[in-house]
Design a protein that fits this description.
Transposase; mainly alpha
Length: 48
């Protein structure tokens, strides 16, 4: 466990890297990149 005030769930670095990798491999990642480049990012819409 990593003690850090910003790491609310106390995830290890490996767990965080895995979550990022899974998101980058998901079908939502291209849409995220497009919305980010258009400055039109709505985070809640990604999880619907």
């Amino acid at each position: 466990m990593c003690r850090d005030s910003r790491n609310v769930y106390q995830l290890t670095p490996t767990q965080i890297e895995r979550m990022i990798r899974i998101f980058r491999e998901s079908k939502y990642y291209p849409r995220y990149l497009k919305d980010k480049s258009d400055n039109n990012l709505h985070v809640l819409e990604l999880y619907e």
